[in-house]
Each structure stands twice: as structure tokens, then as C-alpha cells.
Amino acid sequence: VAKLEPGRERLLLVSPDGKRSHSIAWPSAEAGASEPEWDVAQSIIASPTRDALLEKLIPAYAVVLLVDGTDAAQTKRAHTAAVEAIAAITKLMPEMPKPVEHPPVVVRLPVDRMAEETILLWSLGLDTSPTPEPQVVVVMGRGRRVGESMRGGLITRTALQEAMAVVGQDCECGLDRVWMQGERFPLAWGRAEKQAAFAELGFDPDNPKVKAEISRIIARGPNSRPSGKPQSASDNFDQLALGYSEEIIGIEEPIEEIAMVTTEPPAVTPQPTPTPELAAAKTEPAVEEPTGSNPLAW
């Protein structure tokens, strides 16, 4: 929480690379919010468009998010390019290394609803205010951006098809990992989403063994880091690689050394033979056997 304005607190969101920030007004006392912390947290991870995206991201191959522009003609051309790219990629899906049953879909964000989706737009690197040019971004999985965002004349069928083709590629091939390092938008991933993902994938993506295998695949090979960037310049690689590993820790029991006895046993001194009278005096009386059923008697 930072005070960007005198006398008013605001919540400051910072992007993973630390280069961008977005401020959120903290609810004032006059607003009468009973739980302001919860209201702010809820606004960060949920919104109508994000709920729609999350519902389609789990079963679908990918989602094309189209942010309408104020120029209707450009927006129409962008939508046509997205529809044509989806039709082209749908024909290629059965031949891909990682086939998916459900083809990509388009989710549109009208201009009049951009004000309630500022966190979504900011997190994906898009303009949060209306612009004449439409904006497009391809997202997959848990809201991760594939490639770079596009706007205006750069939104073409070819560009969108190339971005979506990456989603169906085999992670163990020579695929440049930069395609898998896009930003993710904040979302709520709870029990219902985990169960839906498990039902769709046929395995638990949160399983430790699955995470370990993904880390191994991403971290190995010549393309394990973005092309043309030094190792330190990869802002999201460590997050992508998860840094996950498992080790078996065993408890070693101490080995006790047994010393060998080599000395001769001590000599036994013969004892005098007791007389019959003394032996009779030391004889103990006979013990009677228990006859009752009480276990304590035994």
C-alpha cells in the first residue's frame, strides 16, 4: 500500500519484471465497506471478462482475447482475422503432437467495459483506455500470454495462426521457450478449477511429479532460455521452470563397533562344598500353583 496522493492510500501492483505498475484506489471510509481488504483482493483476481476467459481456457485449445477499438472498421477486420485463424488452426489440430478436442475461441471486450477490466488489460500489456485500434492477445492454460500482443494493422490471420500453432507443439522439441514465457493475468484458481482441469487433462497438473517433469523439460536444451538474451535477462524463466525438485532424505543409523575380547577368562576359585545341614536350611519352601481365574494370579 502506497500513498500516491496526499491523505489517500492506494494499492500498487507491480509486474513480474518490475518495469510496470498499476495503482488501485483503496476504499475510503465513506464507502462503508465492511471488509475493504477482501473487496480489493477480489477485484484483483476476478472480473466478468476474466471469469469468461477462465471458463473457456480450461477446455479450449486457446483463447483469442479481442479488445475492441473505437474504430469499427478496424475492429471488424481484426475479428475476421481471428475467426479465419481459428478455422485454419482447427484443421491442423488433429496432426499436432499435443492434440486437443476443443478448438480456440474468441472472447471480445467491448469499449464500454474496458473500465472494469483495467487489471486484466494491464497484466497482459494492453492499453487500459479505449484506443482507435483494436488489440488482440492469445492466451492459454492458466491465463498465460502466448507471444506478444498485437494491435491495428498487425492483427492478421497469419500472425494469429502462428501464435496459436505454438500451443500445440511438443515442449520437448526445439521450441524456443520465449513463447512460453508470456505474462499471466491474475485469476482465482480454486477447487472447482482444479477439478475441471483434472477432468479435461486426465491427470493432475498440480501433482509434484508432473511439476518436476515440466521443470526438467523446460530447463534443458539449447532453447531453455529466450533467444538473444543473456541468462540474467530472463525475467520469467525461473517462475516458468518452477524451481521444483524432489529428494529422498534417509536417516543413517550409526554403526556400533564391537571390540573383540582377546584376554583370557578369569580363573574360577573353587567353592567349599556345603554340609547337608546347611543345604537343607537354605532350601526355599515350595510355591503353590495358582488355581483362581484372576489374570493377575498368573
Structural write-up:
The chain is α+β, with helices and mostly antiparallel strands and 298 residues long. Among the domains are: 45 residues, no CATH class; 142 residues, Glutaredoxin (3-Layer(aba) Sandwich). The chain contains nine helices and seven strands. The strands form two sheets. Strands 5-4-6-7 form a four-stranded mixed beta sheet, with helices on both faces. A three-stranded antiparallel beta sheet has the order 1-2-3, with no helix packed on it. Strand 6 and strand 7 form a beta hairpin. The radius of gyration is 36 Å and the shape is extended. The C terminus is likely disordered.
Brief write-up:
This protein is of the alpha+beta class. The protein has helices spanning 36-45, 48-57, 72-92, 118-123, 157-167, 191-201, 208-219, 237-240, 276-282, and strands spanning 2-5, 8-14, 21-25, 63-67, 105-109, 135-140, 144-151. It has a four-stranded mixed sheet with strand order 5-4-6-7, with helices on both faces. Strands 1-2-3 form a three-stranded antiparallel sheet, with no helix packed on it.
